[in-house]
Amino acid sequence: MISQEELQLARFALSECLAAGAQGARVSLDKTLMSTVAVRDGATDRVSDCLDRAITFALFVDGRYGVYSTNKLGREDLSAFIADSVAMTRLLSPDPLRCLPESWRCCKDATLGNELGLCDPAFEQSPIPSAAQMSASLPETTDCRLLSFESEYSKSENDLVVLDSQGLFCRHTETAFEYYAEATVEDADGSKYNSYWWDSSTVADRLNIEKVNRTALERSVMQMHPQSPDGGKYTMVIELEAAARLLSPVLAALGGYNLQQGNSFLAGSEGKRIFCPGLNVVDEPFRRGEAGSRLFCSDGTAVQDGPIIENGCVRKYFLNDYIARKMKLSPTMEEAVRPHILPLCPEGKNAPSDCASMLELCGDGILVTGFNGGNSNPATGDFSFGVEGFRFEAGRIAYPVRGMLITGNLIDLWNSLYAAGTDVRPSMSKLIPTLAFSNVEFNA
Amino acid sequence: MKPSTKSYSRFSVQPQDLDAIVSAAMHCGGDYCDLYFEDTAYWTLMLRDGEVGSCGHHIDYGCGVRVLSGDKTGYAYSESTDRASLLAAARRAATIADGSSAPAREILPPGGETGHSAPANGKILPLGGEPGHSAPANGEILPPGGETGHSAPANPYRAFGLDAPRPYSMRGSLLDASCTDLAAWLVRLDSRIRSKDTRVSKVIANLSWSLSEILMYNSFGQACTDSRPLVSISINAVFVSEGKVQNGGASRSLRQGTEFITEALLEELACETVRGIDERFAARRPKGGVMSVVMGAGASGILLHEAMGHSFEADHCRKGQSIFEGRIGQRICRSGINIVDDGTLPSYRGSCAYDDELVPSQKTYMVEDGVLTSYLHDRISARFYGVDSTGNGRRESFRYNPIPRMRSTYMESGQDGTCEDLIAEVGSGLYVDEFSNGQVKIGEGDFTFYVKSGFLIENGRLTMPVKDINIIGNGPEALASIRAVASDLVIDKGTWTCGKGQNVPVSCGIPSVIVDGLTVGGE
After folding, report:
1. A227 found inside a domain
2. Radius of gyration of chain B from its Cα atoms, rounded to whole angstroms
3. Which CATH architecture has domain B174-215+226-281?
4. Which of residues 2-21 of A touch B (CB under 8 A)?
């Protein structure tokens, strides 16, 4: 998608950075094309169409560092902007730890952009569904009224090129097709319930629009007539679509930014068993054809696969070059790309293959399908989240719950992991299956 | 402000170009069209480990073209503002009115137009009137060919007067800000914070300043410009004591120029960063349960924003999604309570002279004396409900179409005494002075807020400090459960940003209030 002319522009920008006085520079050219159609109650509600292009520069000038970006891409504008940027960088304090990554760490395998097969070759021709298609397969609602049904389809193509003054050339190209539906229903008492569902893929024909529509409406209806069970300790099953909320603060605590600031509840954890022995988290950035896979970090360094948490032991901090130098450690990569929680089955049982079989395995507890507010403390790992979902009994959903919170500490929580399914969703950036935790504190 | 020649030249357009672009956008029909040109420059300085070792400068430039056909929206934007690119964007936005659901992308020949040019005379008649003039006296704007043909024509899109005062000034030009001086100020701030508490181990401070030059034009032939400054500072400090770690922080954000940066502000921020840290080290999770909660004045206003304000946004209401839909004119809380969304507060982060669809900003009462009196409207919802827009059509940038968004949302002071009076009245419960990460379900009205700091109330006094807990409730029920409102309104000046698919700066505030019957999560 990035044309030869635009590629020349990126090279021109790089040479201008050096000509203006930078000793090192990295230039990223990012181009995205996106079309969106939104449908409400069977009729087209909004169409939009856009093309974005921007160049970002990281400048290393006399031991100083700055990051700049512009979408004014005329050569004259660029030259003036770069000259100003170099001058601005010179006003900062020197920071000898800022420099381009060592060449041997940089990615050399991403020159075409589509090495990981993330582009739909039929992107240009793939049609945007009609309003009728985007309203299809809505089942009749019997004990409630459908107040509003909205859906949105988007297709986009992103092309990124990263160059640096040490000869780096990396390219990443990815297409994305996304579909989202949201339903609001009203029961006989006038109470409203809202829910949504979505699907996404790098390839258009993998989207199942009808299933998304049906699921959004079903999930709205399922929330009707909620109850508030007593607070206390319950087995918590968490849907795979919601489970990232519990893993993300763990990954953030393993990130260099928090570690270097001494603001991480996992400081000093590398190589130690912190979590339950059954927890295995592996980074799998190279999965072909799956959204979010990639070969290089934003600074052009090659990403790595491998364990993050192995049998409960912390195996990796996420340290980019700069933070690693500050901490006098070896650099790894700036963040997890596609963390995958591997299956965990209780002794003598198979790992559940979906949410229903996880409920059956656990028997009794609360199924969490989403979060409503809340936070965790990065320094202590203490958390409190509002949750929504269902009480389940004897392996089956009994009734929806409302007004509930879970509280605890993230280390304790992940030590109470009871089971992890096999049912990851490849279109999500984090490959997390349905999870079950024992003895989670619910407040109501 | 009326555009000057310089305003047009900034975007490389002429007034007559704008008419041609609007014409192209409405060549399939449509009831209204607007153009939103933006040139934003944004600078950052970051202090870490005692030094300002990182800076940034970012430019975002382009124009959004929007066509409204009834309550449907066609939108496209271009990062180039040459005539050909804008005409191409206009034709893509136009598809909303031609019945096709997919915008057809055109490939422009180099430097040329595609052939769908404006009418021969290059002028576009604003719907129902001459170009350059405001709407007809009756305010009704007819699409080409006559009647609107839409199901909810109660109030067609209309023109508003363009005489709004700017609620912000810029005594010191942000364009001429000295990075050296600002970096030195940040280093002094770091030292000042450390001098106030020896437990400070790390300080990160981010200073940013931006200036957005805006040019808007609509199918009534109206044009105006706005120059929107914004300066923000946020600080996070890590404190270590006896092996334990806690965070403290502070932020400020105002629509001002370099006069924002003062020694007085430095001292204020340093004090605020270390304030309450002893209590945080001592804080525990309380026993959970249902209890009365005293919300402290100021930043607690985020609860009002999230739990009630979003449900008052009229896009949620017109789609039947909001729990407050259909309740205009009804009592929703005790008499004496007034809830306001105000875009005119001088220098506040949520203020604007005009919203992003050329409607002058205003102070809007959503609740007056306990009765729901208005939703927050953009042009689409105003037309749907047959009322005037309240000037709440806002957008993150030219890349987004405007939708109803809050500005500075607050509850006016009451007459129930001071915060101390409320604490004494509650007897036992919870006092909260800092929230984060609030979320609300618009349909159900259920909300959850994370309490960063607060105290238990026992025997009418503040006792044990608490942290890392949640409060949950239901918006309408919580509003109806406000028992007392103190006379100490504070509108917070922090770096609040509201996300609703797109981010916009907002402000929020509240006087101290007692809310009965909220669920507090705890041990």
Report:
1. no
2. 25
3. 2-Layer Sandwich (3.30)
4. none
Q: How many structural domains does chain A have?
A: 2
Residues A197, A336 within the same domain: no
Residue A379 has a CB neighbour count (10 Å cut-off) of: 21
Reference B94, options B120, B122, B114; nearest CA is B114
Residue A215, helix vs strand vs coil = helix
Residue A31 is part of which domain span? 4-222
Compare CB distances from B444 to A48, A194, A326 and report the shortest one's residue: A194
Tell if the CB–CB gap between A405 and B521 is shorter than 8 Å.
Answer: yes
Contacts of A413 in chain B (CB under 8 A): none
Q: Do the domain assignments include residue A12? A: yes
A223: number of CA atoms within 13 Å, CB side?
27
Residue ending a domain, among A222, A246, A275, is A222
* 333-362 in chain A: CB under 8 A from chain B: none
| Chain B CB contacts of A43 below 8 Å | 72
* B450 to A67: CB separation less than 8 angstroms, yes or no: no
For chain B, the structural domain boundaries read: 174-215+226-281, 289-520
d(CA A340, CA A385): 23
Q: Is there a domain that residue A349 lies in?
A: yes
pLDDT (0 to 100) of residue B100: 56
Rounded distance, CA B77 to CA B64, Å?
4
Instruction: Please provide residue B282's backbone torsions phi and psi, each rounded to the nearest 5 degrees.
Output: -90, -10
- A329 and A433 both lie in a single domain: yes
Tens of pLDDT, residue by residue over A373-388, are: 888 889 999 888 889 9
Asked if the Cβ–Cβ distance from A49 to B446 is below 8 Å, we say no
CB contact under 8 Å between A128 and B51, yes or no, is: no
Task: Give the alpha-carbon dihedral of A86, A90, A92, A98, to 10 degrees.
Answer: 70
CB-defined contacts A:B, below 8 A: 240
CB A291 within 8 A of CB A379: no
Closest alpha carbon to B224 in B238, B213, B209 = B213
ipTM: 0.90
pLDDT band at B156 (very low <50, low <70, confident <90, very high): low
Q: Which helix (H) or strand (E) holds B251?
A: strand B244-254
Q: Is A91 on the interface with B (CB under 8 A)?
A: yes
Domain boundary among A165, A197, A222: A222
Q: Is the pLDDT of residue B115 over 60?
A: no
B247/A377 touch (CB, cutoff 8 Å), yes or no: yes
> CA-to-CA distance for B315 and B380, rounded, in angstroms?
8
pLDDT for res B116: 32
CB contact under 8 A, A71 and B103: no
A263 touching B (Cβ < 8 Å)? yes
CA-only gyration radius of chain A, Å:
24
Distance from CA of A60 to the nearest CA of B (A): 10
Residue B142 pLDDT grade (very low, low, confident, very high; cuts 50, 70, 90): very low
| Same structural domain, A207 and A298 | no
Q: Do B202 and A261 touch (CB under 8 A)?
A: yes
Question: Which segment of A198-212, B38-52, B94-108, B151-165 scores lowest on mean pLDDT?
Answer: B94-108
